[in-house]
Amino acid sequence: MDITATYSFAAPPSEVWNLLMDPDAIAACLPGCCELRPLPALSGVEGGDDRYQAELIIGVAAVSGTFTATIALSDKVPPHSYRLQVDATGKPGFAHGSATIVLSAEQNGTLAHVTAAANVGGLIARVGQRLLEGVARMTMDRFYGCLAKRVAGAGS
């Protein structure tokens, strides 16, 4: 499943970048997020501080459950772009995905261009196959909408 979307923020790229790198803001805006905590740096791996573990409650159709996800940020070019890798598993199945987020300045703020790809399997995919893309898009829309409200509120 591939998804692309563009989100608008009423703030300069540096402010949007800071928000996208703030674990507290991410946890508050990520639908279904129960916990988001940093993972210890891996020895010999640069950027180990950009890894997190999350507990998420996700539902598709009649199937819902708790997932444990490892989230890693890489290829960071502040305040312009980064790559996000997510690997989640739970009783209802698994989800593996990645996204590239590119921020570009516009006259009234910043545009965030998101290009994502995901592979979902298990019961959640079998039962909700036709709904997965819509649920993924709705989750992204809610997440970036929440962040846009936060950055607009910070500028007031």
Write the CATH architecture name.
2-Layer Sandwich
- List the quaternary state of the chains: single chain
Average of the residue pLDDT scores: 90
How many discrete structural domains?
Answer: 1
Instruction: Give the full name of the CATH homologous superfamily.
Output: START domain
Enumerate the strands of the largest sheet in spatial order, edge to edge or round the barrel. Answer: 1-7-6-5-4-3-2
CATH class: Alpha Beta
What is the end-to-end distance? 38 Å
From the spread of the alpha carbons, the general shape counts as globular
Number of helices: 4
- The number of E-state strands comes to 7
- Which fold name fills CATH's third level, the topology? Alpha-D-Glucose-1,6-Bisphosphate, Chain A, domain 4
User: What ranges have pLDDT less than 50 throughout 5 or more consecutive residues?
Assistant: none
What does this structure look like?
This protein has a single domain, classed as Alpha-D-Glucose-1,6-Bisphosphate, Chain A, domain 4. It contains four helices and seven strands, in the order E-H-H-E-E-E-E-E-E-H-H. Helices cover 29% and strands 49% of the residues. It has 156 residues and is an alpha+beta fold. The chain is globular. The longest helix is centred in the last third of the chain and has 24 residues. The protein has a seven-stranded antiparallel sheet with strand order 1-7-6-5-4-3-2. The chain starts with a strand and ends with a helix.
